[in-house]
Amino acid sequence: MQWAEHLYLSDITAAKKERIIKKAEQGAGMVSVYFIALASNPDNLFDIFHAAHLKESAFYRQNPYIVGIASGYDEALELVQRMVEDIYRETGGFQVREYFGQTGQEK
Predict the structure, then answer these.
(1) Of the candidates 66, 81, 93, the residue with the CA atom closest to the CA atom of residue 5
(2) In whole angstroms, what is the distance from residue 59 CA to residue 35 CA?
């Protein structure tokens, strides 16, 4: 897993950021935590996945680039909306990978 330098966080996850990252890197599942990553499919913008995926060995072969952490699926959707709005405001488009400094880099 790779982590964006500037992670989008909710109020709840911001207070627990370091602990969540440490648990994620250890492969520990977390009940209400969702991660937002750059999309594995180039036709999409983001992937949202539950922390339970961290227990699957196949998950790590994808080497996701995490850009956000949310507490609950609804909160993850709100963070994605905020990201898309910020990206559009900053770039005038939807250049998600460029916004997060991942242009031309493998995930």
Answers:
(1) 66
(2) 13
